[in-house]
Design goal:
By secondary structure, the protein is α/β, with parallel strands linked by helices. The protein folds into two domains: 171 residues, Peroxisomal Thiolase, Chain A, domain 1 (3-Layer(aba) Sandwich); 148 residues, Peroxisomal Thiolase, Chain A, domain 1 (3-Layer(aba) Sandwich), CATH 3.40.47.10. Helix content is 32%, strand content 24%. The protein has ten helices and 13 strands. Helix 3 packs across helix 4 and helix 7 packs parallel to helix 8. It binds coenzyme A. Coenzyme A binds next to helix 2, helix 7 and strand 12.
Length: 328
């Protein structure tokens, strides 16, 4: 068997649209309050992309920053993976559109559908494609435009989500720095967090539009319970596989869905507050983009530096969940 190549994250970038939608703005749209939203979720505001932008535009902005940070040229990229819940269209893949927009001539491109766990799933795929060759440089993006599948009349979901993108450049390296990636799913719960219409089961029709079936539908309480349990499990399994202990972590970057979920996880992992990254107050839940945006922000803010060990954990529709232990 061929010897495996090492893989590392050579650069990161993120992009958040300028428009801010605050809880006070939402008070004018649905029967909710700033206080309720903060107490139940920890979210204060979220970013909303302009009408004329599409998911690939967000992805490209984040990708440009990651390319600059990694000090490579777009032409060095030979693999593009986009994790998204809402691609530009069903086909071609958003990764192919990103390739075209970045003017990259020779690369393999595809999307990953794992909802909020998409970036972690993407890490696992990119890692194995680089370590076994022939790919050397992967652009891995988590990009979401959830505002376009949010029912702005449904107070139980519209307070939660936002738009944005994060990107990482993964390259071959002498020593492997993606220490472990754990992934799992349980399709028995596929109906508790879903976009009911638009696929082959319920193609778009006048009826599906009228009944609001092209919007995210969620059973919040059930999702909440499973999110805590499964992210804890994933965190422990990824740590075990990496040979690291919880004390080795410089920072835990959990999926940014709800502050109460994050606090429950931190408490059970016995991690002090300063070792847990939180930015959901500013952005809400950006699904597949949350963990990579958070990692990029943590790097920019100097919360982590080269050589630090971080763990990313995510959970989302599918249900899917996963975790990755990375040496920066
Ligand atoms: C969505 C979520 C914040 C709701 O919080 P909750 O404590 O479970 O609240 P419930 O759904 O039980 O609703 C409690 C009450 O608040 C009301 N309510 C729901 N949303 C509200 C809002 N935005 N503003 C005011 N009241 C609201 C409900 O109508 C309900 O009222 P009732 O008791 O009179 O029927 C929470 O369940 C959650 O975060 N779940 C996980 C979501 C998630 O992470 N999804 C993505 C995973 S990737």
């Amino acid at each position: 068997m061929n010897e495996k190549f090492g893989v590392r994250i050579a650069g990161t970038g993120s992009y958040l649209p300028e428009k801010v939608l605050t809880n006070f703005d939402l008070e004018k749209m649905v029967d909710t309050s700033d206080q309720w939203i903060i107490e139940r979720t920890g979210i204060r505001e979220r970013r909303i992309a302009p009408e004329n932008m599409v998911t690939s535009d967000l992805a490209v902005e984040a990708a440009k920053k990651a390319i600059e940070d990694a000090k490579i040229l777009p032409g060095d990229i030979d693999l593009i993976i986009v994790a998204t819940t809402l691609p530009d269209m069903y086909f071609p893949s958003t990764a192919c559109i990103v390739q075209q927009k970045l003017n990259i001539r020779k690369a393999a491109c595809f999307d990953i559908s794992a909802a909020c766990s998409g970036f972690i799933y993407g890490l696992a795929v990119a890692k194995s494609m680089i370590e076994s060759g022939p790919f050397k440089t992967c652009l891995l993006v988590g990009a979401e435009m959830l505002s376009k599948i949010t029912n702005w009349k449904d107070k139980t979901t519209c307070i939660l989500f936002g738009d944005g993108a994060g990107a990482a450049i993964l390259t071959r390296s002498e020593t492997n720095k993606i220490l472990s990636v754990y992934m799992e799913a349980d399709g028995r719960y596929s109906n508790i967090l879903e976009l009911p219409a638009g696929g082959s089961r319920m193609p778009a029709s006048e009826k599906t539009v009228k009944e609001g079936l092209h919007f995210i539908r969620m059973e919040g309480k059930e999702v909440f319970k499973l999110a805590v349990m499964k992210m804890l499990e994933a965190s422990r399994k990824a740590l075990e596989a990496s040979g690291k202990k919880i004390e080795d972590l410089a920072l835990l970057i959990p999926h940014q869905a709800n502050l109460r979920i994050i606090e429950a996880i931190a408490e059970r992992l016995t991690l002090p507050r300063e070792k847990v990254f939180v930015n959901l107050d500013k952005y809400g839940n950006i699904s597949a983009a949350t963990t990579i945006i958070a990692l990029d922000e943590a790097r920019q803010q100097g919360r982590v530096k080269t050589g630090d060990i971080v763990e990313l954990i995510a959970f989302g529709g599918g249900l899917t969940w996963g975790a990755a232990v990375i040496e920066l």
